[in-house]
């Protein structure tokens, strides 16, 4: 019994990663969206607003920073990872109710990319676009400059998997998870907040956990 228990402890992480990878691959090609309702070993659900999402590798991934900035830029996955990294461990809270506690994310603070680009006067917000071709999100400039908002390249101390929005996603720690746009490809500084995909369908633009969308969940801080 002790031997079996020890073997289970050793095998569990491998089995969990295999389950997550398998469910993610299936969900990415499921036009019904039903597989996204199934929890995996890590407690996450897989959501996409399109029937499929192309995969990007280190060779072909690009992130653009443009709009009301003095120095537009394009980052590769390698150049993002070469910048100073921040690691945070917070709960992930979905607006649909599920929660994954103490999830590590690591990446570049969004404020660092904005400072490097030189935000112009008159800028009020940030619009995020994604290489799935459909999803978008937004934050006010004040929200985007918070120290707990990352352009993330790692999750759960592993490179960000495609099913989790990799190789790069937004991570907005104090807001519901729909604000943390997956498959991030564009950061555009704008003069006003432009509602994102789910906000156009009725979700709150300011999506603070426990203080929006009619929910009273405990904060993720």
Walkthrough of the structure:
- The protein is an alpha+beta fold.
- It has 4 helices and 10 strands; from the N terminus they run αββαββαββαββββ.
- It has helices at 2-28, 77-81, 110-117, 141-144, and strands at residues 63-67, 73-75, 86-93, 99-109, 125-130, 136-140, 149-155, 158-159, 169-172, 184-190.
- The strands form 2 sheets. Strands 2-1-10-5-6 form a 5-stranded mixed β-sheet. Strands 3, 4, 7, 8 and 9 form a 5-stranded antiparallel β-sheet that branches.
- Strand 3 (86-93) and strand 4 form a beta hairpin.
- It is globular, with a radius of gyration of 18 Å.
- The relative contact order is 0.17.
Question: What are the SSEs and their pairings?
Answer:
Elements: H1 2-28, E1 63-67, E2 73-75, H2 77-81, E3 86-93, E4 99-109, H3 110-117, E5 125-130, E6 136-140, H4 141-144, E7 149-155, E8 158-159, E9 169-172, E10 184-190
Parallel strand pairs: 1-10
Antiparallel strand pairs: 1-2, 3-4, 4-7, 5-6, 5-10, 7-8, 7-9
Shape: globular
In order across it, which strands form the biggest sheet? 2-1-10-5-6
Poorly predicted segments: 4-28, 30-39
Structural class: alpha+beta
Question: How far apart, in Å, are the first and last alpha carbons?
Answer: 39 Å
Mean of all residue-level pLDDT scores:
86
Radius of gyration: 18 Å
- Count of helical regions: 4
Strand content: 25-35%
Structure summary, number of beta strands: 10
The gist of it:
Helices cover 20% and strands 26% of the residues. The protein has 221 residues and is of the alpha+beta class.
Highlighted features:
221 residues, alpha+beta, single chain, five-stranded antiparallel sheet, five-stranded mixed sheet, globular
């Amino acid at each position: 019994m002790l031997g079996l228990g020890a073997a289970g402890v050793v095998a569990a992480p491998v089995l969990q990663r295999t389950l997550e990878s398998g469910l993610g691959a299936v969900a990415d090609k499921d036009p019904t969206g039903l597989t996204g309702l199934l929890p995996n070993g890590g407690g996450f659900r897989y959501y996409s607003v399109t029937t499929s999402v192309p995969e990007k590798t280190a060779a072909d991934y690009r992130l653009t920073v443009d709009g009301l900035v003095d120095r537009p830029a394009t980052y590769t996955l390698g150049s993002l990872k070469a910048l100073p990294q921040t690691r945070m461990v917070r709960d992930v809270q979905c607006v649909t109710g599920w929660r994954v506690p103490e999830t590590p994310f690591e990446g570049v603070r969004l404020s660092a990319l904005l400072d490097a680009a030189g935000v112009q006067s008159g800028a009020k917000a940030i619009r995020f676009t994604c290489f799935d071709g459909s999803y978008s999100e937004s934050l006010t400039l004040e929200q985007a400059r918070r120290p707990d908002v990352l352009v993330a390249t790692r999750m759960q101390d592993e490179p960000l998997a495609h099913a989790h929005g990799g190789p790069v996603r937004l991570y907005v720690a104090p807001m519901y998870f729909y604000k943390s746009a997956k498959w991030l490809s564009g950061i555009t500084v704008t003069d006003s907040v432009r509602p994102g995909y789910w906000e156009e369908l009725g979700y709150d633009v300011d999506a603070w956990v426990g203080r929006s969308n009619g929910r009273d969940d405990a904060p993720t801080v």
